[in-house]
Specification:
The protein is of the alpha/beta class and 491 residues long. The chain folds into 2 domains: 152 residues; 279 residues, no CATH class. Helices cover 20% and strands 29% of the residues. The strands form 8 sheets. Strands 7, 8, 9, 13, 15, 16, 17, 18, 20, 26, 28 and 30 form a 12-stranded mixed beta sheet that branches. Strands 3, 4, 5, 6, 31 and 32 form a 6-stranded antiparallel beta sheet that branches. The protein has a 4-stranded parallel beta sheet with strand order 19-21-27-29, with no helix packed on it.
Length: 491
């Protein structure tokens, strides 16, 4: 009997232990299931928050895109006017800031200068409509409930962007993001061609090699022409095309004017003509000293600082070789042909800054010589020295926009023009002289602290002015940027 009772006692203990083990395993399984559920809920919440944040960031990025291109179709008319530069800087160029450095954007979070509220049916359609809404491409993720633009909280910044969004989840997740923008505010280039000295030399073959379309020529000294009719007459009826002046029957342009500090010299007047030939009414000579020729100034330190942050910075040696980041190591120089070449339209090289030989402010004794031989280049080229422009090919065909024209009904429009054989698309700025070898064609603007001269054999430079440069809009450079340390999520 004692053996049987011992066996039953042991079996009871084993059964109890098995039950306890099953209970522990059940509790562990329930805990794991609960943790898995919480992880799933947490993952969903993180995904929803990420989607909400992306929506809010997208709203801010769209406002930045509007500022860079206020005429794009997606920008509401009200915001196109809001984002245009309304002030003038010390040189008279358009600016976001007044003379005291105060931004043109006004208002607060409770009373913003600009607001779109999805609670308003018309604003909701503009923001979220599946066909015309600004954020229709993101409808599958959520909607934008409110978009506000108002004054910055920090002096020197441009504006605050405040966006509130909601995801498509049930219930929706709402997110509000604040960010502040800074402005680069580079001085505009308000002429197609600008030179700080004479343009041309009074001897056959050395007269001005430059022709300008759609924008002004500004010459601080004298302008030397081969013939008086080389300056196109200004006419509102002139055709707007991509043809050069040598391809048209009459030299006319709707926008071109010549502003000359000294006088116009014509070295090949018509046969038998003794007096100075008459010039078109859009030629203005003897402007210095009163009222003076105001050339747009791109200061050395400012451009160098911008290039180091947003572009490409190079030193140069006596042989014309380039050194990235200004570190000159003999035997490691780069050929300019490897730097200044675009594969085709759209391959923009951004801002490229070439320093002086000693990387100090330009003087007469520290200017290097940069040779540009590429067939096609898109970029903003700033050279603190001399430039030899000698394109090696026929360039590219590009589609460009004319300056604005006003119709009979008051509508302002820009015509699309196809321009062929373009070698430079952007800006060429040299603190010294620019020498042109061969025939070069450019869309944008060119400026030289010295002069622009022909390198012989009929070197010419024909420039179609990019109107956006006069507004301080430079492709390849940010007009505005997200100010570091200003991004904030509220909920």
């Amino acid at each position: 009997m004692s053996y049987s009772n011992g066996t039953e006692h042991q079996q009871g203990i084993a059964l109890l232990g098995a039950m306890v083990l099953v209970l522990i395993l059940s509790l562990l399984g329930a805990t794991l299931l609960n943790l898995a559920g919480q992880e799933a809920v947490s993952a969903i919440a993180e995904r929803q928050a990420a989607v909400a944040q992306q929506l809010a960031d997208a709203a801010g990025e769209l406002v930045m895109a509007w500022i860079h291109s206020p005429q794009v179709p997606t920008a509401p008319p009200a915001i196109s006017s809001l984002l245009a530069k309304k002030n003038r800087n010390a040189e008279g160029g358009p600016s976001f800031f007044d003379s005291t450095g105060r931004s043109q954007f006004v208002g607060t979070a409770s009373q913003p200068g600009f607001r779109l509220d999805a609670g308003n049916p018309s604003d909701h359609q503009m923001l979220n409509d599946s066909e015309v809404g600004l954020f229709r491409a993101m409808r599958h993720l959520g909607t934008v409930e409110e978009l506000k633009i108002y004054a910055p909280s920090s002096p020197g910044l441009l504006c605050t962007i405040d966006a509130t969004v909601a995801t498509q989840d049930n219930p929706p997740v709402r997110q509000s993001v604040l960010m502040q923008l800074g402005a680069l505010d580079l001085p505009p280039l308000r002429a197609a061609v600008q030179v700080g000295q004479n343009l041309g030399v009074p001897q056959p073959g050395s007269e001005s090699p430059v022709n300008a379309h759609w924008g002004d020529i500004k010459v601080a000294g004298d302008l030397v022409l081969g013939r008086a009719d080389e300056i196109p007459a200004k006419s509102a009826l002139a055709t707007v095309t991509g043809q050069g002046y040598d391809e048209t029957a009459q030299r006319e342009d709707r926008w071109m004017e010549a502003w000359v500090g000294g006088q116009i010299q014509v070295i090949r007047p018509p046969s038998g003509q003794v007096q100075q030939p008459s010039l078109p009414h859009n030629v203005h000579q003897r402007q210095n000293p009163v009222p003076g020729i105001r050339l747009d100034q791109w200061t050395y330190e400012q451009l160098k600082r911008v290039a180091k942050r947003y572009g490409s910075y190079f030193a140069i040696d006596q042989d014309g070789l380039l050194y990235p980041q200004g570190v000159v190591e003999p035997g490691h120089g780069i050929s300019p042909d490897d730097v200044f070449r675009s594969k085709g339209p759209g391959d923009h090289r951004g801002l490229i800054f070439i320093d002086t030989l000693d990387q100090a402010a330009p003087r007469t004794d520290n200017l290097g010589i940069l040779k540009l031989r590429g067939a096609y280049l898109e970029g903003i080229v700033v050279v603190q020295g001399h430039v030899v422009l000698a394109p090696s090919g026929l360039g590219q065909s590009i589609s460009i926009l004319s300056p604005p024209t006003t119709g009979q009904n008051g509508d302002v429009s820009r015509m699309s023009v196809q321009l062929s054989r373009v070698n430079l698309n952007g800006v060429l700025y040299a603190s010294g002289n620019i020498t042109v070898s061969g025939k070069a064609k450019m869309y944008g603007a060119v400026a030289a602290g010295g002069t622009i001269a022909s390198g012989g054999s009929g070197g010419t430079l024909e420039v179609w002015y990019d109107h956006d440069l006069g507004q301080g809009l430079y492709r390849g450079l940010p007009v505005v940027y997200r100010a570091p340390g200003t991004w904030l999520t509220r909920y």
